[in-house]
């Protein structure tokens, strides 16, 4: 349970970083979040 909480915090932090980096470009923000979540899904389902 603790590990999944830590993993969630790391993923959340990565998403916040993407939002902060692209705050003036919503399309770029969405593209990068989508790419991140696709990579995560690929890793989880391997």
Polypeptide structure, described:
- The protein has 2 helices and no strands.
- The protein is mainly alpha-helical and 46 residues long.
- The protein has one domain (2-44).
- Helix 1 packs antiparallel against helix 2 (26-44).
What attributes does this structure have?
46 residues; mainly alpha; 2 helices; 0% strand; flat
Over all CA atoms, what is the radius of gyration? 12 Å
Secondary-structure element order, as H and E?
A: HH
Average pLDDT number:
91
Helical content (DSSP H or I, runs of 4+):
over 70%
What percentage of the residues does DSSP assign to strands (E)?
under 5%
Could you say which structural class the secondary elements and strand pairing correspond to?
mainly alpha
How far apart the termini lie comes to 21 Å
Number of strands: 0
What oligomerization state is this entry in? Answer: single chain
Biggest β-sheet strands, sense, barrel: none
Query: Could you say how many structural domains there are in total?
Result: 1
Uncertain stretches of 5 or more adjacent residues: none
Quick rundown:
With 46 residues, the protein is mainly α. The chain contains two helices and no strands. It has one domain.
SSE layout:
Elements: H1 2-21, H2 26-44
Helix pairs in contact: 1-2
């Amino acid at each position: 349970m603790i590990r999944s909480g830590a993993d969630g915090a790391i993923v959340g932090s990565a998403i916040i970083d993407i939002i902060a980096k692209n705050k003036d470009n919503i399309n770029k923000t969405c593209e990068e979040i989508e790419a991140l979540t696709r990579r995560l899904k690929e890793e989880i389902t391997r």
